[in-house]
């Protein structure tokens, strides 16, 4: 089945530890995104990548880092510099083909709920 | 910076009543998309509107894109309990980066049977 996978579904970490969230897609999409969602809130963009080896900061990039070494993978590291890391993290992808109808439709993974104790 | 706001933030309706959520962007959007997130789930794509003034229907759902491409609405006729969830509008700004997406704040719909 084609889709986006995120692991793990639930993650607990101690304060001060870095943690890496996995995101893999087999949709052959060029663009990938990371969002953060807090309870009762909308989605806020952390980082996005339009192509391998390139990524851009979103609106709340401070305290996070990403890499895009492979087309299908876009891991997110939540560093100890992130002051309030407890949240629901969503990864998404889109085909990213400029000018093609529907190319920016976002397909989401199931998300990772991170709790920092 | 770019902002996309939705109203209302919450809506509680009796099953069978209609529901409408409104989306307003601070800048022009190249297209508007709507997503639904069920409780505990992830957002799922519903529809995309591209043209100014466009109206699309999906069964009981009617979507509209404003003439200035800065606002949109989603109307549900005769709500059902299966409509429960949070509805988000989203889209890329113009002439901003095609791949940078802005999501609205969402409207959480609760339907009482």
Q: Total number of helical segments of chain A?
A: 0
Q: For the largest interface in this structure, which chains are involved and how many residues does each contribute?
A: A-B, 28 and 26 residues
Distance between the termini of chain B: 41 Å
**What gyration radius of chain B follows from the Cα positions, in whole Å?**
14 Å
Strand content of chain B: over 45%
Shape of chain A: globular
Low-confidence stretches of chain B: none
Q: Which sequence of SSEs, written as H and E, runs from N to C of chain A?
A: EEEEEEEEEEE
Main sheet makeup of chain B: 6 strands, mixed
Summarize the structure.
With 117 residues, chain A is an all-beta fold. Chain A contains no helices and eleven strands.
How would you explain this protein's 3D organization?
- The complex is a heterodimer of chains A (117) and B (113).
- Chain A has 117 residues and is an all-beta fold.
- Chain A has strands spanning 4-7, 10-13, 19-25, 31-37, 43-51, 54-57, 64-66, 76-78, 87-94, 107-108, 112-116.
- In chain A, the strands form two sheets. In chain A, strands 2, 4, 5, 6, 9, 10 and 11 form a seven-stranded mixed sheet that branches. A four-stranded antiparallel sheet of chain A has the order 1-3-8-7, with no helix packed on it.
- Chain A is globular and about 45 Å long.
- Chain A starts with a strand and ends with a strand.
- With 113 residues, chain B is an all-beta fold.
- Chain B has strands at residues 4-7, 10-14, 19-25, 32-37, 44-49, 55-58, 61-65, 71-76, 85-92, 101-103, 107-112.
- Chain B starts with a strand and ends with a strand.
- At the A-B interface, strand 4, strand 5 and strand 10 of A face strand 5, strand 9 and strand 10 of B.
């Amino acid at each position: 089945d084609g889709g986006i996978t995120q692991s793990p579904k639930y993650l607990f970490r101690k304060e001060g530890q870095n943690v890496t969230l996995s995101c893999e897609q087999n949709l052959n999409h060029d663009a990938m995104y990371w969002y953060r969602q807090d309870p009762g809130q909308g989605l806020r963009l952390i980082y996005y990548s339009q192509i391998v080896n390139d990524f851009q900061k979103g609106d709340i990039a401070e305290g996070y880092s990403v890499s895009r070494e492979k087309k299908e993978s876009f891991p997110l590291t939540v560093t100890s510099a992130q002051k309030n890391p407890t949240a629901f993290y969503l990864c998404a992808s889109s085909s990213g083909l400029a000018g093609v109808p529907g190319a920016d439709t976002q397909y989401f993974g199931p998300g990772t709920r991170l709790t920092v104790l | 910076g770019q902002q996309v706001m939705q109203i209302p933030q919450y809506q509680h309706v009796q099953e069978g009543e209609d529901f409408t959520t409104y989306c307003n962007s601070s800048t022009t959007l190249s297209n508007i998309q709507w997503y639904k997130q069920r409780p505990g789930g992830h957002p799922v794509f519903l529809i995309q509107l591209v043209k100014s003034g466009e109206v699309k229907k999906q069964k009981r759902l009617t979507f509209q894109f404003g003439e200035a491409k800065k606002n949109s609405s989603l109307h549900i006729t005769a709500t059902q309990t299966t409509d429960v969830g949070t509805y988000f509008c989203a889209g890329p700004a113009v002439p901003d980066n095609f791949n940078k997406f802005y999501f609205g704040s969402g409207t959480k719909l609760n339907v009482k049977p």
